[in-house]
Amino acid sequence: METDINKVLRNVLSTGKVVIGGRQTRDAVKNGKAQVVVLASNCVTETVNEMKNVPVINFPGTGVDLGVACGKPFSIAALAVLEPGESEILSFRSKNV
After folding, report:
1. Nearest to 54 by CA among 70, 74, 78
2. How many CB atoms lie within 10 A of CB 8?
3. Are 82 and 34 spatial neighbours (Cβ–Cβ below 8 Å)?
4. Does the pLDDT of residue 3 top 70, yes or no?
5. Three-state SS letters, the chain
6. CB–CB of 74/20 below 8 Å?
7. What integer pLDDT is reported at residue 61 of this predicted model?
8. How far apart are CA 37 and CA 53, in angstroms?
9. What confidence tens digit (pLDDT) does each residue in 32-81 have?
10. By the 8 A CB rule, do 37 and 54 touch?
11. 10 Å Cβ neighbour count for 14?
12. Which residues contact 8 (CB under 8 A, 6 or more apart)?
């Protein structure tokens, strides 16, 4: 049975260490702290283009959908996972979910 990305995202947010937002995600990638990045389908091109040398998970929904999946009351265009905690987020790397 495949793991649901929404459950994995909530798990990583509660047990791991994550930064939310385009600017914070770009900084985490630039500093080599991001283990994996999750990008919403409507993430701005500038952010997408800066995701070099880091695994990317392309979330199928918009930023609003990603925010809901993460249990947040706001839109999330990008997030970087610094520590996965007890989640299985790293198994989703380089996949379109």
Report:
1. 78
2. 21
3. yes
4. no
5. CCCCHHHHHHHHHHHCEEEECHHHHHHHHHCCCCCEEEECCCCCHHHHHCCCCCCEEECCCCHHHHHHHCCCCCCCCEEEEEECCCCCHHHHCCCEC
6. no
7. 94
8. 11
9. 999 999 999 999 988 899 898 899 999 999 999 999 999 999 999 999 99
10. yes
11. 12
12. 87, 88, 89, 92
Listed residue (67, 42, 61, 55) closest to 92, CA to CA: 55
Output the pTM of the full model: 0.90
Task: Give the amino acid at 26.
Answer: R
What per-residue confidence (pLDDT) applies to 97? 47
Q: Which amino acid is at 6?
A: N
Q: Which tokens in the block code for residue 74?
A: 């706001």
